[in-house]
Write a structure and sequence with these properties.
six-stranded mixed beta sheet; alpha/beta; six-stranded parallel beta sheet; Rossmann fold
Length: about 280
Amino acid sequence: MYNTDKFLLAGVMGWPVSHSRSPIMHNHWIMENKLTGLYLPIAVKPSGLSSALSMLKPLGFAGCNITIPHKQTALEIVDASDEIARTIGAISCITVQKDGSLLGTNNDWYGFIENLKQETPKWRADAGPVLVIGSGGASRAICYGLIREGAKEIRIVNRTYSKACDLAKVFGKTVKPIPWNKRNEALKDVALVANTTSQGMTGTSPLDICLKRLPLSAIVTDTIYTPLNTPFLKSAKLRGNHIVNGLGMLFHQGVPAWKQWFNIEPVVSEKLRKKIKLDICKP
């Protein structure tokens, strides 16, 4: 157990970071576990990431989460990273070690997989081809998680085809890069489709994809949770597909972060879900 007499500090670094509900979730857990501390949103421009990370130890932080657009850059800055982060090529969580060094890992894959399992208990990674839209840090983490769970074929579509090819080089023959102009055709016979881009997030344009070829049996997921149901998810639900939004991914990736920072396993409760849903849906 972490020293409960100490004022606990953690946070999330991103640019922008105002959309993140991580502070609500982590501060809820701080109160629920009767701890004294604070989890802060930290807006950091890309040019200032190295300086910001260097201040974690002097300011007394136990660690921090890393979000868009810093996940891949952070990997190059931390003092050490585990095999998961190195394989994915991106960091979502940093822990300040006792000697002040920064250790990076990636919990996004775990959050994505646990969210799918909770919302779709009968889901199997080997049920059929998977289409992943995007090739950034979240996409890399999801590919890692899917392969770990036994996926046999993952199709990657990205506006920049070379970036999709880069993922195939990292993860091998399981991952098949597909040109952006073939994205609609790539939906044929898939069992799962996951949007990992920011398209559809509040303030952005919707994801440009036609679901006509998507099987009605396919599960449709989005890593976005603001709004809870993106235009992409709404379209999928309207035609009869089972949908899973990104809110559960947020919750579940937070659990291993707490284990790493405080040696405490927080509970993803219905009370927490309601609290964050109300905040997202408020006018």
